């Protein structure tokens, strides 16, 4: 007995699974077209990824695994505390940590491109704690098919 004959069946078609996966990605994304994205925020001087973010990256990693032609760009950013050199290293560590989780959850190494910008491209100009929090981020963008 297949999914077509029984609406309560546990089996779904590949097309239905892809549609469900695309819906999950769209819910995670702040983009609307064929590029989807996710912004991951970090604590000060940290590259640690929270469990909630790991769950989101699991969805993206599984999507990338199911779509080997899809590509992902990971951009690491920091606030302006610390030296530019230190911030570039931290931004790279953040981007690599996000990439690590994507690979752990099924993405291929070849699908991932990481870049560290450090403090060069702040999302917010300002000196408040909230401004700095918004700048301590990794931007993840992937193509959808």
From TrEMBL:
Do the record's keywords include Membrane?
Answer: yes
Keyword annotations of the record: Membrane
Domain (OmpA-like) spans: 29-145
The protein's matches in InterPro entries, at most eight in alphabetical order, are given as:
Bact_OuterMem_StrucFunc, OmpA-like
Protein's name in the database: OmpA family protein
Q: Which organism is it from?
A: Pseudomonas muyukensis
């Amino acid at each position: 007995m297949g999914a077509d004959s029984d609406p309560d069946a546990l089996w779904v078609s590949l097309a239905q699974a892809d549609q469900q996966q695309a819906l999950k990605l769209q819910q995670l994304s702040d983009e609307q077209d064929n590029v989807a994205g996710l912004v991951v925020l970090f604590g000060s001087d940290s590259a640690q990824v929270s469990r909630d973010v790991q769950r989101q990256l699991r969805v993206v990693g599984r999507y990338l695994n199911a779509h080997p032609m899809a590509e992902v760009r990971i951009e690491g950013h920091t606030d302006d505390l610390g030296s530019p050199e230190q911030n570039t290293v931290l931004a790279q560590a953040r981007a690599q940590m996000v990439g690590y989780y994507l690979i752990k959850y099924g993405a291929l190494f070849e699908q991932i491109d990481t870049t560290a910008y450090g403090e060069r491209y702040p999302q917010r100009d300002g000196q408040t704690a909230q401004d700095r929090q918004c700048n301590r981020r990794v931007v993840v963008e992937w193509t959808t098919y």
